[in-house]
Amino acid sequence: MAWQWFHQWGSPRWFYQRSGVWLPWLGGAAGLLLAIGLVWGLALAPADFKQGNSYRIIYLHVPASFLALAGYYLMAIAGAIGLVWKIKLAYTAMKCAATIGAALTFVALFTGAVWGKPTWGTYWVWDARITSMLVLLFLYFGVIALYQAFDRVDVANKAAALLALVGTVNVPIIYKSVDWWYTLHQPASLKLTGESTLHASMLQPLLVMVVGFYLFYAAALLLSMRAEVIARESGGGWVKALAAGQGGGQQL
After folding, report:
1. What are the residues whose beta carbons fall under 8 Å from the beta carbon of 168, sequence distance 6 or more?
2. pTM score over 0.85
3. Does the residue 248 lie in any domain?
4. For the chain, N or C: smaller number of CB within 10 Å?
5. Within a domain: residue 132?
6. pLDDT of the residue at 188
7. Closest CA to 97 of 231, 8, 206, 228
């Protein structure tokens, strides 16, 4: 009984039903927090005494960077679950997380480049943090590409899962790069342990944005997985019943 929930999440039908209940709440909460955080951070928070208003890019850059790293771990864990317990829905989560993670990593790199121009005088430098983030983007692309490279879904799942697991070594390198090597990139302003270097008036809207991004990520992942589940299970009776409006997704 203790593992019943785990096996239930392996059921595409059960997942589709449950996720449909959660999505409106996740999407609504994400939209509300992101709206509050953006207005608070971009319009109401004070300007930085050194960087002026250019620092406000952190309200997009920092949450996107957090999710790019956390999303990679989620993708790798899903791949490991698929390899060990042969749960197809875990592979679905891995595939969908790769696409969303690649988009967030690109946003992190792009906003970092925009921030770098007024701060460093250039859009790009090959320092440890930025280079390892670029490697992360290529790892995401690699997982996506493996799904296109194989005709057999089971082979693509296993190959993508192995690459995702190997790539996890890059995540702690990204996190600790500003401490291990000389780098132009500033140290982390928001820390899990220790006091933040940001003033409370700047930190509070950033925390709102981070939570909003995490909720947005959860909603986007569930939406993407639901679409993938419907595509993969299109021949199933419950999907046909659902499409026909016969309530096929309402009972387990």
Report:
1. 72, 73, 76
2. yes
3. no
4. N
5. yes
6. 67
7. 228
Q: Which two tokens stand for residue 70?
A: 């956390």
* 3-class SS of residue 50: coil
In the prediction, which pLDDT does 192 show? 57
Amino acid at 212: G
CA distances from 121 to 109, 115, 117, 164, 178 (A): 16, 10, 5, 35, 19
Q: Is there a contact between 167 and 118 (Cβ–Cβ < 8 Å)? A: no
In tens, the pLDDT along 11-61 reads 888 999 999 999 999 999 999 999 999 999 999 999 998 899 999 999 999
The verdict on residue 215 lying in a domain is yes
pLDDT of residue 240: 77
Half-sphere exposure of residue 16, counting CA atoms within 13 Å on the CB side? 22
Token representation of residue 151: 């005709």
pLDDT of the residue at 241? 80
Is 14 a member of any domain? Answer: no
Nearest-CA neighbor of 42 among 221, 202, 169, 220? 202
**Three-state SS at 48:** strand
Domain range enclosing 116: 22-184+194-243
